[in-house]
Amino acid sequence: MQTEDDFKAGQVLLIDKPLTWTSFQVVNKLRWSIRQAFNIKKIKVGHAGTLDPLATGLLVICTGKMTKQINTFQGQEKEYTGTFVLGGTTPSFDLETEVNETFPTEHITDDLIHATTQQFIGKIDQFPPVFSAIKKDGKRLYEFARAGEEVEIKSRQVEITEFEITQISNLELHFRVVCSKGTYIRSLAHDFGKALDSGAHLSSLRRTRIGDFKVEDAMTPETFIENLPSK
């Protein structure tokens, strides 16, 4: 069992983020629980890479002196699995907002789907979603989007080293992606739909790996809290 000194010296905690939780909520919950367990006023706790509320999977949480390693972990390769839905787009590129446009899908074949993945492997330019936490002029992009304000977004170069469609179920495409820091899988879904001369949005997302850290080795926030010493 980890001690107060362990957390202060620095721990790397692998947490499986639950659906609908923000990454910030996970950090706050763990920080509060550590403080309560050891009756301490302050402890540094941070995460190495945000997951959207509608995504699940691996969050690397650092405590104490290990928070200095956050930038290193953030820069590592990431792996995701999830589902795209063809034929419709949403303003947020995922299920945070409702479908606002629909497109024909009759022309889409399995061969076309698999072939189209090749367009996205390597270094690509990608526009982040307007519903994202990126800051512009001191405000988060999603604040502009929710207020209905248009804002100019610049593209970013990201790298996708692996992109495969693992299963096709009618208009649902199950996928696996390995990519660089800063890649938005929601934007990949949107752009993939465009490349198919249709539309698409992300309906589920799970982060399975960051560098050498794997989600199979992660625990839920509840399990972590249960393993802390009780007063």
Percent range of helical residues: 10-25%
Compressed to H and E, one letter per element, the order equals HEHEEHEEEHEEEHEEHEEH
Helix run count: 7
The major β-sheet equals: 9 strands, mixed
- How large a portion of the residues is in β-strands, by DSSP E? 25-35%
Separation of the first and last Cα atoms: 14 Å
Bulk shape: elongated
User: Which parts are unreliable, with pLDDT below 50 for 5 consecutive residues or more?
Assistant: none
Mean pLDDT rating: 93
- Roughly how many Å is the radius of gyration? 19 Å
Tell me the number of strands.
13
**Helical/strand content category:** alpha+beta
What is this entry, summarized?
With 231 residues, this protein is α+β, with helices and mostly antiparallel strands. It has helices at residues 4-9, 23-38, 70-74, 110-116, 141-146, 185-195, 221-226; strands at 12-17, 45-47, 55-63, 78-86, 88-89, 101-102, 122-126, 135-136, 139-140, 156-169, 172-179, 200-210, 213-214.
Task: Summarize the topology.
Layout: H1 4-9, E1 12-17, H2 23-38, E2 45-47, E3 55-63, H3 70-74, E4 78-86, E5 88-89, E6 101-102, H4 110-116, E7 122-126, E8 135-136, E9 139-140, H5 141-146, E10 156-169, E11 172-179, H6 185-195, E12 200-210, E13 213-214, H7 221-226
Parallel strand pairs: 3-12
Antiparallel strand pairs: 1-3, 2-3, 4-11, 4-12, 5-6, 7-10, 8-9, 10-11, 12-13
Structural account:
It contains seven helices and 13 strands. The chain is α+β, with helices and mostly antiparallel strands and 231 residues long. Strands 1, 2, 3, 4, 7, 10, 11, 12 and 13 form a nine-stranded mixed sheet that branches. It is elongated. The two termini are 14 Å apart.
